[in-house]
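Hallway conversation turned thread

IA: we were arguing at lunch whether anyone had actually written out Aspartyl/glutamyl-tRNA(Asn/Gln) amidotransferase subunit C end to end. Turns out nobody had. So, for the record, here is the sequence (95 residues) and right after it the structure tokens. Reply here if something looks off.
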Amino acid sequence: MSITEDEARKVAHLSRIAVDDAALPALARELNGILHFMEQLNEVDVEGVEPMTGVTPMRLKRREDVVTTGSMPDRILSNAPDAREGFFAVPKVME
């Protein structure tokens, strides 16, 4: 499969990325390189290989699920980038 400049323009538009017409050939080459790499990955025999979440087999640390009162607002709010009057302060999103 090969990506044309017109298809690269469409991908850029769908991705909401502004790309100058002069940069479209380079973008098309990059996309073609990505597709070529994906085709190579499809050729790898993975029969009998179990899926994994990381490259090293390890068990995640777990803690016991204990119900608490949660009465530590000062400790919780100490992690917030901005806290006011005992609450998380966030930017206003609506006028």
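OS: looked through it. The radius of gyration is 25 Å.
IA: good, adding that to the notes. The chain is about 35% helix and 5% strand.
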